[in-house]
């Protein structure tokens, strides 16, 4: 089977859980939450999810990536995959318990620092969410390492469906039952805690996910290898800085708008809610990048262990750029329809969408380029590059949020990821050279931007009406697909036909 076909197949299945599942989440929850919540309330939800993402990096300290590295080369490390799995799992269990106790004790003070005084329950709930997700990280990594994407997808999709169901249970069924004086519902429902119910739903879904994955913990070899653990930490800790910076670079918009916006806390949270809602429309590109990364990281490690052929890495990056450019075109050409997934009050932020889509395109390229220094054990560079990206992100936001508000985080993300992908490419050329076709990647991006620009140029010339505009844009999408197939046909046939037998 073609190596690219294998990666594409795994990406498609991981996409079932991360792209399709999250798209279902997006299709249902984003329209719902942006209609039942005020902008400031939605801003609180997105603000707190920033800290959940940040803490998850702290709780897992990129041990899943270290697991890929050491499990794929277990013989070189004079170990076996089960011992590596046990070592990583026991490390995560011990630190998760410790960190969770600390956060529970300090919950009231942390809530006050976050400017939610008296809501220590927010901190306690999101601490448990992070704890459950951290404990599930290594079992999920084991499924990816063992090439078991179907089980991975089933667990992920089940959690998403459960989370959606619980949100509707808490925010629709409970108030409906309470109004009809159903005693147990009336005792559970408090209209002042609507925001907290979103996190309670996530908590229960995360707990069930961990329960589904718990049989993998039966595979623990109960051999904690201290020497391997120290080397795993040495490998992973530079990536922690990179992951922290990555969260800052992608999600810091709402917290910084809350702190730096020109209005009151409530007004600034409303800005954050507007930004976060518009950014949700970039979810298709973002989740394509995520699904690709889920499949590509273990794939690259496995491939490096069996073959020195580096052309596959160049082909994968090029394929990513081609599909990413098509994703950009598709989202922008059908934005007149996609925008209705947001409540009417939240659509004023749609101007940031093309900037965020291109930013996510470069983030995906960075994931491709960064594999070079991961495979050559030069992971310290991940920290340096991400730190550089964070400095760019924070500087642009601090300077421009007071004047251009929600546009500052969008442009900051683009500047950050362009810089990171450039640095990643240059470092890979130095430590692990791959002949990437930058000319082709640029061609795909420029073509996507050009088609979107052509659509905007034609807009005032077309008769009014959504059907006419969508028809014209559909023709443009078909034409760009034909053009790409015509110009890339021979390359596509070559990569889809290449055997993985060496």
Structure description:
The protein contains 20 helices and no strands. It is mostly helical and 502 residues long. The protein has one domain (3-497).
**Mean pLDDT over all positions:** 85
How many helical stretches?
20
Major sheet details = none
Q: What low-confidence regions span 5 or more consecutive residues with pLDDT below 50?
A: none
Keyword list:
single chain, 502 residues, mainly alpha
SSE layout and pairings?
Layout: H1 3-36, H2 39-60, H3 63-72, H4 81-105, H5 107-113, H6 120-145, H7 149-179, H8 183-188, H9 194-217, H10 226-251, H11 253-260, H12 265-280, H13 283-306, H14 311-333, H15 335-338, H16 353-375, H17 380-404, H18 407-431, H19 438-458, H20 466-497
Helix pairs in contact: 1-7, 1-13, 2-6, 2-10, 2-12, 3-4, 3-6, 3-10, 3-13, 4-6, 4-10, 5-6, 6-9, 7-9, 10-17, 11-12, 11-17, 13-14, 13-16, 14-16, 14-19, 14-20, 16-18, 17-18, 19-20
């Amino acid at each position: 089977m073609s190596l690219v076909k294998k990666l594409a197949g795994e990406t498609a299945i991981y996409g079932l859980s991360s792209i399709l599942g999250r798209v279902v989440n997006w299709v249902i929850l984003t329209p719902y939450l942006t209609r039942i919540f005020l902008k400031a309330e939605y801003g609180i939800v997105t603000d707190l999810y920033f800290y959940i993402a940040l803490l998850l990096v702290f709780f897992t300290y990129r041990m899943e990536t270290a697991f890929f590295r050491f499990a794929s080369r277990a013989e070189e490390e004079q170990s076996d995959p089960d011992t590596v799995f046990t070592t990583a799992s026991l490390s995560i269990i011990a630190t998760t318990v410790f960190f969770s106790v600390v956060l529970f004790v300090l919950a009231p003070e942390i809530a006050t620092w976050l400017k939610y005084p008296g809501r220590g329950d927010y901190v306690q709930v999101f601490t448990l969410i992070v704890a459950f997700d951290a404990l599930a990280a290594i079992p999920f990594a084991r499924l990816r390492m063992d090439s078991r994407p179907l089980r991975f997808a089933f667990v992920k999709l089940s959690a998403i469906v459960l989370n959606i169901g619980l949100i509707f249970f808490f925010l629709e069924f409970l108030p409906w039952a309470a109004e009809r004086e159903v005693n147990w519902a009336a005792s559970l429902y408090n209209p002042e805690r609507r925001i907290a119910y979103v996190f309670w739903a996530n908590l229960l879904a995360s707990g069930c996910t961990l329960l589904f994955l718990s049989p993998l913990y039966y595979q623990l070899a109960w051999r904690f290898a201290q020497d391997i653990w120290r080397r795993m930490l040495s490998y992973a800790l530079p990536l922690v800085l990179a992951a922290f910076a990555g969260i800052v670079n992608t999600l810091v918009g709402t917290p910084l708008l809350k702190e730096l916006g020109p209005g009151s806390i409530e007004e600034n949270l409303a800005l954050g809610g507007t930004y976060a809602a518009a950014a949700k429309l970039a979810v298709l590109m973002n989740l394509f990048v995520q699904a690709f990364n889920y499949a590509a990281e273990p794939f690259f490690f496995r491939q490096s262990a069996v073959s020195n052929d580096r052309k596959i890495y160049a082909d994968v990056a090029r394929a990513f750029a081609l599909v990413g450019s098509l994703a950009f075109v598709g989202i922008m050409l059908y934005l007149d329809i996609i925008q209705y997934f947001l409540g009417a009050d939240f659509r004023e932020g749609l101007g940031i969408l093309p900037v965020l889509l291109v930013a996510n395109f470069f983030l995906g390229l960075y994931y491709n380029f960064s594999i070079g220094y991961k495979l050559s054990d030069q992971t310290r560079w991940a920290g340096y590059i991400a730190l550089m990206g964070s400095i760019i992100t924070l500087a642009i936001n601090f300077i421009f949020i007071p004047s251009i508000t929600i546009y500052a985080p969008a442009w900051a993300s683009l500047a950050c990821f362009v810089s990171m992908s450039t640095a990643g490419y240059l470092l890979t050329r130095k430590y692990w050279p791959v002949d990437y076709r930058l000319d082709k990647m640029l061609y795909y991006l420029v073509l996507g931007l050009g088609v979107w620009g052509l659509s905007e140029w034609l807009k005032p010339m077309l008769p009014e009406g959504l059907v006419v505009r969508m028809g014209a844009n559909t023709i443009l999408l078909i034409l760009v697909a034909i053009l790409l197939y015509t110009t890339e046909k021979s390359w596509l046939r070559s990569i889809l036909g290449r055997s993985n037998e060496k």
